[in-house]
Structures are given as structure tokens and as C-alpha cells.
Design goal:
By secondary structure, the chain is an alpha/beta fold. It contains 18 helices and 7 strands. Strands 2-7-6-1-5-3-4 form a 7-stranded mixed beta sheet, with helices on both faces. Helix 1 packs across helix 6 (140-174) and helix 3 packs antiparallel against helix 5. The protein is elongated and about 85 Å long.
Length: 501
């Protein structure tokens, strides 16, 4: 009886060892391999956007990818009927799904007439062929060895990207929040002139556009001058970073530097000093905010009197989730709002044109346009362009066309404002110019000398209409131009900043 029980226990232990060594370990290894492959594209974007990403966003996209992996695993196992082979096929499914856009771009270079559906059929055909090869030609040992190589490669990539992000993580932890206290202005005075301050993100100055687009934008500058604007073709800002330059401009002070984290930089966008200043002068605040980059440039204005925000339809396309999904096989589904961007831009311009109707005097209108910044959605005539080129940094034509269209719209709105409000002050600026060399280095591994290109990438749009009066602003930075305008308008004595490039 005792011998029988021992034999039974021995059989159970042997079965357990067999299950652990041959089944359980295989399942764990397979799950870990699939998990590492699906985590990599998420971690790559997440680590590079620590300033903007939240852990909640990471979990959200991770959950979506897990569901997709489970779906592919079921299909793979139903085809292969073996764990190691099914794991390999699942990984192939995931790789083609996660990096579909790159595969599509490579094929379109060879076959320019191809569209999404052509590439999709090619990908599906390749997967079917791979499934057949794995089932008929591969044994389990070969599949297992390939899975090991995949696991090692993607584990290394995740660790490598985490290592690169450590300095940013440490800097983010060290940075404490910093708020600028608004300067109280004594002796209120009443000023009648309406003020329009419009910032156009990535609108290159004359030198910038000439260098990277081989385009002479003199017609635009001449048109502004004919309207009574004072223009500067060679103005430059200190950096090429929006979250450095916009806070500095709106606070009339060099408070941000490139060494600060993004979270610390945008602290000074909470009730910027410029808005406190005009409020002290009894101005009403009229705010036009382009929500496409609201995550990156969260301008918060207290006590605003009028406000217009672009529609939320394109807002999702600047989230971390979108940055991950836009290269996957489902990218056409998440790009449905692409053509709505043109309408949003038109609506913002129309709102500015109608701003003089809000009140006849003492109105400060601030407009921030993420335009002609990418996405490049229109040509020079305002017609929609192919969505495949909405981030085409290699061909400057798409930026240049959108910049030309922005130039036409700026002339249109300024002409109409001056017609009904000739005693106004209109300031038109950008934060930086077209940053083609920087993006070519970052996205495609080119080796442009960014120190040499900085003088062109920081060349900005800078023009001032001051009641039709002359004002010398040539080669002034955007910040010093603002200081000069408000010193003259409000009889102040803010010191000029100057630039140390």
C-alpha cells in the first residue's frame, strides 16, 4: 500500500516536472518574448517624451497592444499548433503591425503609385507565406532560437533607451516648480489703441526660408511694409525651442533656458506677465489658442474676457498615444481628422479678423497659431495635400507651401484690421524658423552641423504696425521688439535683453 502511494506520488511529481520543464517554461518564455516586442515601441516614444507623457497614457496604449497580441496569438496557435512556432508567428504579426508605416514608406519609394491598400495586401501575403514556412520548414528548435534572438535584441533596445532617458528622469525629479510673480504696475493710465499680438509657430524669417526652401519671400515683406508695418528680415531668437521662446516672450524676460526641463519651462505660462501688464492698463483680454499643441504649450490665462480655441478634432494627434499609433497598421483610422485641420486654421484667422467688432478700444488680442508648423495640410493656395506628406521634413516644398499660404492669410487679416482699426498696434512674430536640419538629424540620422545652422533656424518672422508710425526693429530679437513696443506704448523703461548666441 505504501509502495503504491509512493509510486503515485512519484508519477505526480514526474508529471509536474514534465509540465514545468516542457510546457510551463515554454509558455512563460513565449509570453515574455511577445511582451518585450510589444513594449518596445511604447517605451521608445514614452522615454523620449517624459516631459509630456503620463504613466496613465503608457498603461492605456499598453492595454491596447496586449489585446492585439492576444488576438494574434490565438490566430497563430490555431495555424501552427505549437507554442514556439506560434510565438514566432505572433511576433511577425506584431512587427508588421507596429512598423507598418515604415514598410509602406520604403515600398512607396520603389513604387510611387502604391497606396495603403496595396501595401496592406503585400504585408498580408508575406505573413501568410511566413506562416506556411514556419509550419512546414521550421522545426521547434529553430523557432525557439529565433525567438531567443528577438528577445535579446528587443530587451537590449528597451534597456538602451531607458539608459538614454536617465539624465532626463533625474533632471525632471530635481526641478522644482518655479512661478514668476507678476510685476505690479503703479499709476494706471488709460490707453485707447487696440493691440494685436499674433505668434505663428515655425514661421521662418527671410534668411531661414531662403536657405532651406530656396524661396525669396520679399513679396510678403513688401506687402507688410505697404500696409505701414516695420519689418525685420534678420531678427533671431535665442533658441529653436517653442517652450523656451513663448514663455520668454509672454513674460518680457529671459526666464527660460535649454537646460531647464519642459515642465519647469511651462510653469511661466501660467498667467504670464504680459497679460498682467495689459490688464493693469485696463485692457480686455481676447485670446485665440490653437489647441493642436496645447499639451506642449499650455498657455493659461486668468481673467480673460474673450476666448476662441480651435476645435478639439486634431488635439488627439499630438498625444503620446498618437505618436505610437501613427506608424502602425491602423494609422488611416486615426488620421480621419486630418482634413479638418484646414477648417480649424481658417476659423482662427476669421476670428482674428472679426476681433475689432468685440470692442472699439482697449482690446488686447493674443493669438497663438501652430502654423505653418507641421502638420503640413495645405498647399500655397489653401488646398488639402496628401496626408502622407504631413510630416515630410525631407522635402521642404510642403513646409514652404504652407508658409506661403500663411503669408497670404497674414496679409489678408492685417489689411482688414488696419482698414477698420488704423490706430491699432499689430505685432506679428514667430518663435523660431523652419528647423529642417535639426529634424533631419533627429529623424533620419543625418549629420548636419547644427551649430552652423542655428543662425538660420533661429531666424524669425518679426513685424510691427504701430499706428502707421515708423519704428526701427531690424535685427532685434522677438523679445527686444516686444519690449520696445510696450515701452513706447505705455511709457515704460524695461531694459533690453539682447542675445548671446
Amino acid at each position: 500500500m505504501i509502495s503504491f502511494k509512493r509510486n503515485k506520488l512519484s508519477i505526480i511529481l514526474t508529471s509536474f516536472r514534465f509540465f514545468y520543464n516542457n510546457i510551463f517554461k515554454q509558455i512563460i518564455f513565449s509570453l515574455f518574448t511577445i511582451l518585450v516586442v510589444l513594449i518596445y515601441p511604447i517605451s521608445f516614444i514614452y522615454f523620449r517624451n517624459l516631459d509630456h507623457a503620463t504613466f496613465h497614457e503608457f498603461l492605456q496604449i499598453f492595454g491596447q497592444f496586449v489585446v492585439l497580441a492576444c488576438f494574434f496569438s490565438v490566430i497563430s496557435f490555431s495555424i501552427e499548433r505549437e507554442t514556439k512556432k506560434a510565438t514566432l508567428l505572433t511576433v511577425i504579426f506584431l512587427l508588421f503591425s507596429f512598423y507598418f508605416r515604415f514598410f509602406e514608406k520604403a515600398l512607396i519609394i520603389i513604387f510611387p503609385m502604391f497606396y495603403y491598400w496595396h501595401v496592406l495586401m503585400i504585408v498580408l501575403t508575406i505573413i501568410v507565406i511566413m506562416a506556411f514556412v514556419i509550419k512546414k520548414k521550421f522545426n521547434c528548435d529553430i523557432a525557439h532560437k529565433i525567438n531567443k534572438i528577438i528577445l535579446i535584441i528587443f530587451s537590449f533596445l528597451i534597456i538602451y533607451n531607458f539608459g538614454l532617458s536617465i539624465p532626463k528622469i533625474i533632471q525632471t525629479i530635481k526641478n522644482s516648480s518655479k512661478e514668476k510673480l507678476p510685476l505690479l504696475i503703479e499709476n494706471k493710465s488709460t490707453f485707447d489703441s487696440n493691440i494685436y499680438y499674433l505668434i505663428f509657430d515655425e514661421f521662418g524669417g527671410y534668411d531661414n526660408v531662403e536657405r532651406y526652401c530656396n524661396y525669396d519671400n520679399s513679396l510678403f515683406y513688401n506687402s507688410l511694409q505697404s500696409l505701414g508695418f516695420n519689418v525685420s528680415k534678420h531678427s533671431r531668437n535665442l533658441t529653436i525651442y517653442t517652450d523656451v521662446e513663448i514663455p520668454n516672450l509672454l513674460n518680457l524676460e529671459l526666464i527660460n533656458t535649454v537646460d531647464m526641463s519642459h515642465n519647469l519651462r511651462v510653469q511661466s505660462l501660467k498667467s504670464p506677465f504680459l497679460f498682467s501688464l495689459v490688464k493693469e492698463k485696463d485692457y480686455q483680454l481676447n485670446v485665440v489658442i490653437d489647441k493642436i499643441f496645447q499639451n506642449h504649450i499650455p498657455i493659461e490665462i486668468i481673467n480673460k474676457d474673450y476666448e476662441y480655441k480651435s476645435g478639439p478634432s486634431y488635439f488627439y494627434e499630438e498625444t503620446v498615444n498618437f505618436l505610437i499609433l501613427k506608424n502602425t497598421i491602423i494609422y488611416p483610422l486615426i488620421n480621419k481628422t486630418f482634413y479638418k485641420r484646414n477648417d480649424e486654421i481658417t476659423n482662427m484667422f476669421n476670428y482674428v479678423i472679426n476681433s475689432p467688432n468685440l470692442q472699439s478700444k482697449q482690446l488686447f488680442t493674443f493669438g497663438y497659431f501652430t502654423f505653418p508648423h507641421s502638420p503640413w495640410v495645405v498647399d500655397e493656395f489653401g488646398k488639402n495635400v496628401d496626408p502622407r506628406n504631413y510630416e515630410n521634413w525631407r522635402n521642404s516644398k510642403y513646409y514652404c507651401d504652407q508658409m506661403k499660404y500663411a503669408s497670404k492669410k497674414i496679409i489678408e487679416i492685417t489689411k482688414k484690421i488696419i482698414k477698420v482699426d488704423p490706430n491699432s498696434i499689430i505685432i506679428i512674430q514667430s518663435d523660431h524658423g523652419f528647423r529642417q536640419p535639426t529634424h533631419l538629424n533627429m529623424l533620419y540620422g543625418e549629420k548636419n552641423n547644427l551649430q552652423e545652422e542655428n543662425i538660420y533656424e533661429t531666424n524669425i518672422l518679426n513685424a510691427v504696425y504701430f499706428k502707421g508710425e515708423e519704428m526701427q526693429i531690424e535685427s532685434l530679437s522677438g523679445l527686444d521688439t516686444l519690449i520696445k513696443v510696450f515701452n513706447k506704448l505705455f511709457y515704460l523703461d524695461f531694459p533690453y535683453v539682447g542675445l548671446d548666441h
